[in-house]
Every structure is written in C-alpha cells, then in structure tokens.
Amino acid sequence: MTNSIRETEKIKFWIGDDHILNIECKPKTTMTIEEGKLSTKLCLELVQNEPLPLLCDLTNVVKMTQECRKHFAGHDHAKVFTKCALLINSPISKIIGNFFLGANRPLKPTRLFTNKKEALKWLKN
Amino acid sequence: MTDFSDDKRLNAILDMIGRIASLDFTEMLEVSEENDMVDAISLGLNMLSEELNSQVVDKKILHEVNAKLEKFAYTVAHDLKSPLNSQAGLIKLLELTLNPDPNSDIDECITKLKRMNEKMKSLVEGVLSYSLAQSKAIEKEEVDLKELVEEVIEIDNFNEKADIEIRNELPVVFFNRTGATQIVRNLLDNAIKYSNKTRCVINIESEEKNKHYEIRFIDNGPGIPPEYQEKIFQLFNQIDPSLKTDSVGIGLATIKSIIEASGGKIWLNSKQGEGSTFIFTINKK
Predict the structure, then answer these.
(1) Edge-to-edge strand order for the sheet containing A11-16?
(2) Would the CB atoms of A95 and B44 count as touching at under 8 Å?
(3) Does the pLDDT of residue A52 top 50, yes or no?
(4) In A, residues 20-49, which contact B (CB 8 Å cutoff)?
(5) Below-50 pLDDT ranges, chain B
(6) Residue range B138-283 in CATH 3.30.565.10
(7) Is the distance from CB of A95 to CB of B43 less than 8 angstroms?
(8) Structural domain spans, chain A
C-alpha cells in the first residue's frame, strides 16, 4: 500500500508506508538533465520539503548523462533525501552507480546494493 | 545499421582506450540495448572520457585565469613602484621644507606618512616577488646552500641582529639561486622581525632523506599559535597586521610558491612561547 505516487513516462515515484521514498525506472531508461530536474521537482512535491530516506532502483537505466549525474550529486537533489540506497542489478546500472559514487560524490550518504532487503535495512537504520 | 558483433565491439573498446590514453576525448562508443558486460564497459569508458575531458578543460581554464591574474598583479605592482618612489621623494621634500620640531604634530604626521609609504613599497615589492616566484623554479643550477646562507647573512648584516649558527653541513642542491636566496633571506628576516627576545637566536640544519634534503630554520621567537600555522603561508595573512612590523604578509607565501614550484614542501613546527622551526624540502637531482 502506498501513500502518494507520481509518474512520468520513464520513472515512478512513491512514498511507502515505511516512509521511504521509492524511485523506479522503466526498462531502457535514459536519464538526461531535464529528467533529472523533473525527478527532483516531483520528489520535492512528494516529500513536501521534508527529506526522507531514498531507495532508487537504477537497474533499468541504460544511460545517465554527465550533467544529470552532477545534478543528482548536487545541492538541489540533496534536499529530497536523508540517505540514498541505489539498487544496481544490471551491468550498466552497476557502472553508473559506481561512477556516480566515485566521480560525482553525492552530498548525502549514498550506498550501492544488489539486494533490496539489505538496502531497506540500511535505510531504516 | 550498427554492427554489434562481439569482435567489433571489443575492437571499438580497444580503440577507445587508445584514444583516452592519448587524451583524445572526441568520440564515444556506441552502446547497444543488451545491457550486457560489454555495454557496461563501453558506457563506463564513455563516462570516463567525459569526466577526464571536463577535468582537462577545467584545469586549462584555471591555468589561463591564474596566468592572467599573475600578469595583472605584476603589472599593477610594477606600475605602482614609480608613483610610490615619487611620493617618498615628496615626503622628504615636505620634511625639509617644513623642518618640523621633533615630537610636534607635523613631525608625527610626516613620520606616519613615511612609514605608510615604506609599507606600501614593501607590499608592491612583495607582490612583484610573488608574481616572479613561479619562474624562479625554472632555471636551476648547482647551489651550495652553506655558501649561499653565509652570503645572505653577510650582505644583509643579519649577524648584527641575531646569533645565527649553521649546525651541520648544508647540501649542494640543484635549485634556482635567486629563489634559494629569497627563501633564506625571508626566513631569517621573519625570525628577526618577530623575535621577542633580547637576542634572536637562529639555528640552521639539514638532514638527508631518501629523495630529498630537509632544511630547518629554528628560532627562539615567540612561537606561532596552532590556528595560524597554516594561514601564515597564505598570501596577505599575518599574525600581527598592525603597522608596528613592516611585514605585509607576502614573504612566506612567496617562499611556499618557490618551494612548491620546485616540487618541495614547507611546513612549521611551533609551540607558543617555545620558538618555531620552519622546515622545507629540496628534491635531490
């Protein structure tokens, strides 16, 4: 059961009963700066300016531009979440996730997971 | 139609690695929708190429900006020298014309004007030295540090102002002579300028390490509080910014710039009330 949902052509956003903000990308998603900014806007609407733990499933993402990665690592997007677990269960998402942590260095605690249960456990701690 | 056979994809990856190695970031690999390992490697190389390109561009812009700033600082300082010298002459003329009574208000004003003019001249000289510091690392020659230290002590009459002892053999280094002179002169001058003892004592020693020499200037001065120990190497940073000392906060920044441009380091060990040790390194040939 979910409290609130937003959806674009490529991404679905919702807050679960556990007060975790979830982001799930649809198959073969390419993320550009425009989609990155729209994601932040929709997330801010959902969390109503009260940052929450974020579970973001990158598995279906096939490309994320440099500008978009910078945006997700920056101040604007950091207003959305307190900590972020990135699910990476495809080769490309693994590369994007590792690159994001290594080269872009997000402002708030961010970790990579292949197991959703472990990701949720870390987010709730 | 794009050929995504494994051989083609792997060859494209090898070519891409070659391009990145030669800092050519103009081309990107095509990524199929298979989302397999080869796609992941291709995308990773594309992202790596983008990041490296950004950093190369940023570095280039930073170098250009720095070069322009240094040129600007040099030009401004150079152009200020002449009016400041004229000003010094006019102050002297004013003093001779008015011939004020000692300790009168006019005498006090003229003394203040002179001090301010001297301070401005020191500042301008300092900015000029700092602007030239980078180039002082370029032309190197064999420099006998012991000889050079003794020469600076003699020319600047430092022995009249302090007891200076060279504790052990100082090395012959491959360094820019003008830069080395400036380092020695500024370190000795600073120790004397800030000394709070009836007699300033400075010991100079060196230690040979694997790849470099460590040179230490140890004084018996007031010491430097921990919160200032990094700041004093920054441009225009002084512990005492008053007009009492003729320091303008450029000397140590200049030294740091000369040393770092030659691949060395400078730092400080000091406890308040127990003197300071300035340590710098000079790489062996």
Answers:
(1) A2-7, A11-16, A21-25, A52-57, A81-87, A110-113
(2) yes
(3) yes
(4) 28
(5) 243-244
(6) yes
(7) yes
(8) 2-124
Q: Indicate the residue type of B115.
A: R
What's the per-residue H, E or C state across chain A? CEEEEEECCCEEEEEECCCCEEEEECCCEEECHHHHHHHHHHHHHHHCCCCEEEEEECCCEEEECHHHHHHHHCHHHHCCEEEEEEECCCHHHHHHHHHHHHHHCCCCCEEEECCHHHHHHHHHC
End-to-end CA distance of chain B: 58
Fold topology of A2-124: Transcription Regulator spoIIAA (3.30.750)
Q: Is the pLDDT of residue A50 over 70?
A: yes
Domain locations along chain B: 1-137, 138-283
Token look-up 């940052």 returns A51
* Cβ–Cβ pairs < 8 A, chains A and B: 39
Task: Please give the pLDDT value at position B247.
Answer: 64
